[in-house]
Automatic annotation (TrEMBL):
Stretches that traverse the bilayer: 57-84, 117-138, 144-165, 193-216, 246-270, 291-324, 344-371
Organism per entry: Bifidobacterium cebidarum
Alphabetic keyword roster: Membrane, Transmembrane, Transmembrane helix
The protein, known as: Uncharacterized protein
Amino acid sequence: MPFVHAIHPLKLHHTSDTLETVLEVWCSLRWQSKAIAGRDCSTKANGVVAMTIMASYVIVAMLIWLLMLVLTVTVLVLVIRALLRMNREPSLSMRPEAGGNPPFSGDGPISVARHRALVALLAGAVVLVAGLVLNDVFSRNMALIAALTPGLAASAVMAVIALPFPDVPTRQGGGVRVASLQSREPWTYAKRYVLMQPLLTAGLLIAYLGFTIATASPDDYGLMRNIALTGPNGESQGSAGPYPGAYYAVPLIVVTCVLVVLACLALWRIAHAPSSPDPRYGEEDKAWRVLLTRFTVFLSAGSMLTYAVGVLVVAGTATVRVGINYGSLSPAYADDVYPTLGNAQIVMGGVVAVVACIYLIMACVAVVRLWTGTNRGSRR
């Protein structure tokens, strides 16, 4: 055993020689333990510097994650509050008053909304399938195309909805065109705290992508899609990927901005589309605008939350891997808190995944109700 051979030649008769030899043995054992852990042995002074640097890094990292946690909890609270109040809002109720009009007709304004929704969903499906096929063809892109495809598909849906609606005014006797002059805005059909959710989600997603850009490292090809464990001397002691660095994050930010802009245009178009002044279609006109507004908000926000889930899980997995050196180190070793931060991201990704599913389900419910209408036998 190396320890036995090191202790055996000690001369206990000379105190100075004994202390010197013990220190040499201690340094030797410390070097061996660090070598087993995959790290270089350093002097006491360098060790103090390394501990100071690492402590500063841990403090900054934990503060960042605390901020992200607070923001995420705030968003979840706002989401729950908005969803609970949205369906209780009398002005946005789609149930008619007593003696109101019958269910949706087949030739009224609702038919135009149904056609627009079908075309939008078809465009989104085409973009989704095309993106997945291209990702298989260009397999060297490290799933970049697949990462962008959901956002591009949602953007295609928003773009179709944002197209001008057909002019549907009626003509009175004498060929005079008649149209409703009622002022309409997006917040006429959804509360402002509902409409702001896509913007809030996009802001949080972009902020988090900025964090991953700042913490990314280049891979063997020089592309920023890895995360590295760097020692106090600046040398890389291990890396893992894929990680949402600039290679993934910058395109995702661009797609997110495009999606938000198209969602805002779609909401504006829904509110300002021409309506029929025929009083028989008053409820239908309000109903399709409310439903398409909800569909637009929930689909755009749900798509960005889905992006956030992917980024959190991928970043968390890579962070855990680099912290434990692909499983060669026990997670309990972790003097770099990488596994802790990585697992926190993965758990947060699971929480956001639940919220994303809720949003996407509500988007589906909103578009289905264009055909099923509402239960007109009861009121709220």
